[in-house]
Amino acid sequence: VDYLLTEDIIFGEAYNLPFEDKSFDVVTSFDVFEHLLPEDTEKSLKEVGRVAKKAVILCIPNTPSHGHKHNLHINLRPFNEWHELIDANIHGQIIVMPNPSTKSKTWIVYK
To answer: Could you tell me the strand order of the sheet in which 24-30 lies?
Structure first.
């Protein structure tokens, strides 16, 4: 991994982001949280909230991954559980975007 890192590419883990508080106006995460270890979920949500100044956008599916021998979505939860976790770990006003798909939801948290 080290050969990929440059001054513009920084290695970090979702539960321990190497950035100061409120480093970014908006933090986005698309199709990431379903791949995290379940025990890292709350700490990772707190971290994206910590480094965001104005908003956090999270798109999270709740269905198994397709086209693989193994299910890569190891952190599947019902949408209402995701909503509760987001609400408990990222402070702000939550809006759930309308989505005709039942496979994923997008939350926007305005701080």
So the answer is: 24-30, 52-61, 104-110, 93-97
Greatest Cα-to-Cα distance within the chain, rounded to the nearest angstrom: 41
Residue 92 CB partners (closer than 8 Å, separation 6+): 49, 55, 56, 109, 110, 111
Task: For strands 93-97 and 52-61, give the pairing.
Answer: unpaired
User: What is each CA distance from 86 to 19, 44, 48, 95, 101, in whole angstroms?
Assistant: 20, 10, 10, 11, 20
Provide the whole-model pTM: 0.90
Per-residue tokens: 98: 């309308």
Question: Per-residue pLDDT tens for 20-53?
Answer: 999 999 999 999 999 999 999 999 999 999 999 9
